[in-house]
């Protein structure tokens, strides 16, 4: 979590095939809509994005993309106020 270690990145797939039904991500209700959101957050300079890569020989060196918030996004959340009533299932 970024509060514990602001330098830590969070892994995220930018490949739509990783978000299929009954996959690990789908069981957490994370959809492929994550991809355009990540791209827009990067465009707005609200996150740092390190692109992943795939090596055909698949010797364990493959990496998915990683993201972390920029100071700009962190500042936005410092003033934000949320309660349990703001959380809804969509």
The separation of the N and C termini measures: 24 Å
Biggest pleated-sheet summary: 3 strands, antiparallel
Helix and strand element order: EHHEEH
Using only CA atoms, what is the Rg?
Answer: 15 Å
Strand content: 5-15%
Mean pLDDT: 83
Number of E-type strands: 3
Number of domains: 1
- State the shape: globular
- Kindly state the percentage of residues in helix: 25-40%
* Quaternary status: single chain
User: Major sheet: order of its strands?
Assistant: 1-3-2
The count of helical stretches stands at: 3
| Structural class by SSE content | alpha+beta
Q: What does this 3D model show about the protein?
A:
With 90 residues, the protein is an alpha+beta fold. It has one domain (10-72). It contains three helices and three strands, in the order E-H-H-E-E-H. It has helices at residues 24-27, 34-43, 71-79; strands spanning 10-12, 47-50, 65-69. Strands 1-3-2 form a three-stranded antiparallel beta sheet.
Short description:
With 90 residues, the chain is α+β, with helices and mostly antiparallel strands. The chain has helices spanning 24-27, 34-43, 71-79; strands at residues 10-12, 47-50, 65-69.
What topology does this entry show?
Blueprint: E1 10-12, H1 24-27, H2 34-43, E2 47-50, E3 65-69, H3 71-79
Antiparallel strand pairs: 1-3, 2-3
Task: Provide keyphrases for this structure.
90 residues; alpha+beta; three-stranded antiparallel beta sheet; globular; 3 helices
């Amino acid at each position: 979590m970024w509060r514990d270690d602001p330098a830590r990145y969070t892994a995220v797939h930018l490949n739509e095939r990783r978000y299929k039904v009954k996959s690990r991500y789908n069981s957490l209700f994370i959809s492929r809509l994550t991809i355009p959101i990540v791209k827009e957050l990067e465009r707005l300079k609200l996150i740092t994005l390190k692109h992943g890569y795939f090596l055909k020989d698949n010797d364990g060196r493959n990496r998915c993309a990683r993201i972390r918030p920029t100071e700009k996004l962190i500042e936005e959340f410092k003033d934000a106020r949320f309660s349990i009533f703001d959380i809804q299932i969509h």
